[in-house]
Specification:
Helices cover 22% and strands 19% of the residues. By secondary structure, it is α+β, with helices and mostly antiparallel strands. The strands form two sheets. A seven-stranded antiparallel beta sheet has the order 1-8-5-10-4-3-2. The protein has a three-stranded antiparallel beta sheet with strand order 7-6-9, with no helix packed on it. The structure holds 2-oxoglutaric acid.
Amino acid sequence: MNPSCLAHVLNDDERARFDAEGYLVVEGALSDAEVTALNAVLDRLRDANRLASPERYAGIDQRVLHLGFITLDRAFMDLIDHPRLFPKVWGILGPNIYLYSTHLIITPPQADEFDPARDTLNWHQDSSWMGRDMPELAVPARLSVKVAYLLTDHSQPGSANLWVLPGAHTRSSIDIPPDGQGQPPGAIPVCAPAGSAVIFDRRLWHDGSPNAAPWSRRALFYGYGYRWIRRRDKDAMPVPPDQLADAGPIRRQLLDYPSEGHEPLQFIGGESPLRDWLQRHGQLA
Ligand SMILES: O=C(O)CCC(=O)C(=O)O
């Protein structure tokens, strides 16, 4: 990892906003050239029928959800330790992390109008069963975050924006309208241009939304969590040998491919190239 990424560590203002609201928008996380290149990769994969089949999801027609997508192309792999975003991830979670989940979502334009005052979204927290398994926690534990890279414009509501309920991440329940009409009070669409990244706490109440824009909405999601969190089988990512050969020790940690002689998903005291790197660069005591 190049030390120049230290210019993008989480600053105090970003940390305060993330802690208070449960998410953070980083505009300009990807350059225009990166957005164009990633969209071209998606076009190629779509044309070659290599993406998951579209399905209906909670009022969204023909949505593509492709789990464990990062091995489909090296360009996706290169985002896992992106210099402008990854420093914010370790700033929030610390060094004992790996990629526990990845997915891409494509939401095509939809003819039926989405009316937020009418159509209640499928509000959820990620890994919500954790709250059920640990009811003794008055405030649920953070445990993981997702980074969503936006490859299309989401600057206006109605462009299949991620909807969030800012500040509700410290609660394990919210008031979801029981009659399916409208959104919880305080809910907002996250509006940001293409190339932005949204980092969100797994406890943030959120959902995707239908697309009223004339283009297909595209977003790439990278879920980072502690190395003792288990990943779904569908998210298991056998990394092609050529991509693994190029991966440095930190990327290998994120992919859960430890060096020879080390166990995957180590416990305290195990190998942690990210921790060692942060210590060497004065980021950790
Ligand atoms: O499509 C979106 O923006 C929402 C994705 C989502 O709900 C998730 O990643 O858990």
